[in-house]
């Protein structure tokens, strides 16, 4: 399989994933938090298969819902047609939407993955500015942000490794210091806040949206930050007539111990993107939750000379199998109190990681709910990659993000498995720093 893979397959982020490129795991099957390779070796899936398997692999209720949907309706266009799974899922998402300071989120626009949800949100924001006043061509983004790999999403990213190669092609953005950036020193919140304020004072009338990953910049290495930044971003966006976009592709669907990271701050954005865990990892689907006032700007009015339509939508938008999987996942999450369990699992991981945090070579352990990063040193020396490889030899699948080792297990991971996860990490660190 490995030779055939090497001959025919171009993998995503190929060089970046060099720690596995020589001998990738050939995954054969999965169940709960476990993966098996073709040689029958078992691995604990400590990163929920790239942060998606909310309740683990092979959840019976989700599998049954997808099978039932498959027997009934496999696909139908959402262009000029609709269907029960698409409607019911939108109703469920609206019912679950965060509440607090900000507008009610009342409409759901479907997309295919995290990047395409971000892409849709950026286009909505720009078009909204044009249709409610005049076009505002700029986006405010945070340093170290990751919002996906389509060109719009790349433009609002702040992670040079992924973005620098495409700079000449990108939208106009203004980068702001991140409140999660440890390099800013102890008052990183104050530094980021004053930077955001001065950018909005100077350029606010040019800005259609501020986009942030709320509470934690995930792909940057789980850089968590203070909720006050989000409250200030809400006030500043409203004061300057810009939209606030929360990209909850990573933080949403229970990951941080709340349904949405926005709830930690009591703030509601105008647009909220979600993806990853929404179908429980079964099928690709994402969505933009939009405030009613945003949606209204896209409704035709008497006397219009140009259509206000949102010119966006894909062949597989709201595929019924994907919607059925997401609906079953959200229902099962409610029945199993998955969000409460995520909060408790996060606390357990935090306790188990206390001795790890004190080890030589460990710079910092960062965590919000189950979103966990263990930063190791020396920086830039592939230390994170080596720790993950050593953990893999012990049957635990982790993921390096630069110098940070990520732990992001299914929300319902059992106590024994959480112990195993941290024990393997602990032993892997010992091996690498021996
Ligand atoms: N936004 C955030 C916050 C993400 O973490 C990611 C993926 N890591 C994306 C967007 C892009 O999602 P996808 O890979 O599904 O396109």
Automatic annotation (TrEMBL):
Binding-site residues, substrate: 146, 276, 313, 399
Pfam name, any one: Aminotran_3
Reaction it catalyzes: (8S)-8-amino-7-oxononanoate + S-adenosyl-L-methionine = S-adenosyl-4-methylsulfanyl-2-oxobutanoate + (7R,8S)-7,8-diammoniononanoate
Cell membrane keyword on record: no
GO cellular component: cytoplasm
SUPFAM superfamilies xrefs: PLP-dependent transferases
Compartment list: Cytoplasm
Keywords attached to this entry: Aminotransferase, Biotin biosynthesis, Cytoplasm, Pyridoxal phosphate, S-adenosyl-L-methionine, Transferase
Gene3D superfamilies on file: Aspartate Aminotransferase, domain 1 (3.90.1150.10), Type I PLP-dependent aspartate aminotransferase-like (Major domain) (3.40.640.10)
PROSITE patterns membership: AA_TRANSFER_CLASS_3
Documented EC number(s): 2.6.1.62
Domain of life where this protein originates: Bacteria
List of residues binding pyridoxal 5'-phosphate: 114-115, 247, 314-315
Protein's GO biological process: biotin biosynthetic process
Site (Participates in the substrate recognition with KAPA and in a stacking interaction with the adenine ring of SAM): 13
Residues where N6-(pyridoxal phosphate)lysine is found: 276
Named cofactor requirement(s): pyridoxal 5'-phosphate
UniProt-listed InterPro entries: Aminotrans_3 (IPR005814), Aminotrans_3_PPA_site (IPR049704), BioA (IPR005815), PyrdxlP-dep_Trfase (IPR015424), PyrdxlP-dep_Trfase_major (IPR015421), PyrdxlP-dep_Trfase_small (IPR015422)
Record text on subunit structure and interactions: Homodimer.
Known function: Catalyzes the transfer of the alpha-amino group from S-adenosyl-L-methionine (SAM) to 7-keto-8-aminopelargonic acid (KAPA) to form 7,8-diaminopelargonic acid (DAPA). It is the only aminotransferase known to utilize SAM as an amino donor.
UniProt record similarity statement: Belongs to the class-III pyridoxal-phosphate-dependent aminotransferase family. BioA subfamily.
Protein name: Adenosylmethionine-8-amino-7-oxononanoate aminotransferase
């Amino acid at each position: 399989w490995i030779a055939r893979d090497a001959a025919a397959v171009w993998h995503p982020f190929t060089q970046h994933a060099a720690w596995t490129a020589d001998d990738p795991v050939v995954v054969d099957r999965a169940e709960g938090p476990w993966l098996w390779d073709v040689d029958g070796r078992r691995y604990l899936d400590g990163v929920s298969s790239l942060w998606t398997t909310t309740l683990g692999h092979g959840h019976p209720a989700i599998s049954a819902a997808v099978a039932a949907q498959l027997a009934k309706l496999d696909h139908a266009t959402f262009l000029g047609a609709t269907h029960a799974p698409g409607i019911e899922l939108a109703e469920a998402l609206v019912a679950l939407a965060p509440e607090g300071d900000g507008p009610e989120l009342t409409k759901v626009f479907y997309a295919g993955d995290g990047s395409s949800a971000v892409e849709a949100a950026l286009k909505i924001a720009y078009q909204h500015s044009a249709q409610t006043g005049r076009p505002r061509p700029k986006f405010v983004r945070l340093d170290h942000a990751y919002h996906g790999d389509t060109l719009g999403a790349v433009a609002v990213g702040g992670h040079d490794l992924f973005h620098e190669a495409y700079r000449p092609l990108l939208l106009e953005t203004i980068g702001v210091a991140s409140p999660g950036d440890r390099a800013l020193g102890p008052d990183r919140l104050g530094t980021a806040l004053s930077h955001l304020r001065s950018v909005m004072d100077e350029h606010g009338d040019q800005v259609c949206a501020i986009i942030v990953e709320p509470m934690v910049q995930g792909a940057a290495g789980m850089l968590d930050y203070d909720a006050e930044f989000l409250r200030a971003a809400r006030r500043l966006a409203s004061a300057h007539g810009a939209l606030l976009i929360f990209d909850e592709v990573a933080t949403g669907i229970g990951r941080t111990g709340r349904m949405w990271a926005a709830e930690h701050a009591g703030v509601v954005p105008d647009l909220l993107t979600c993806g990853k865990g929404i179908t429980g990892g079964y099928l690709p689907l994402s969505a933009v939750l939009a405030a009613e006032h945003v949606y209204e700007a896209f409704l035709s009015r008497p006397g219009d000379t140009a259509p206000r339509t949102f010119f966006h939508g894909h062949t597989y938008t709201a595929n019924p199998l994907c919607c059925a999987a997401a609906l079953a996942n959200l229902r099962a999450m409610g029945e199993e109190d998955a969000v409460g369990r995520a909060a408790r699992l996060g606390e357990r991981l935090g306790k188990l990681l206390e001795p790890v945090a004190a080890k030589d070579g460990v710079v910092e352990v960062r965590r919000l709910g189950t979103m966990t990063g263990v930063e190791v040193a020396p920086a830039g020396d592939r230390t994170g990659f080596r720790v993950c490889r050593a953990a893999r030899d012990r049957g635990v699948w982790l993921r390096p993000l630069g110098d940070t080792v990520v732990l992001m297990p299914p929300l319902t991971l059992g106590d024994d498995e959480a112990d195993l996860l941290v024990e393997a990490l602990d032993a892997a660190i010992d091996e690498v720093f021996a």
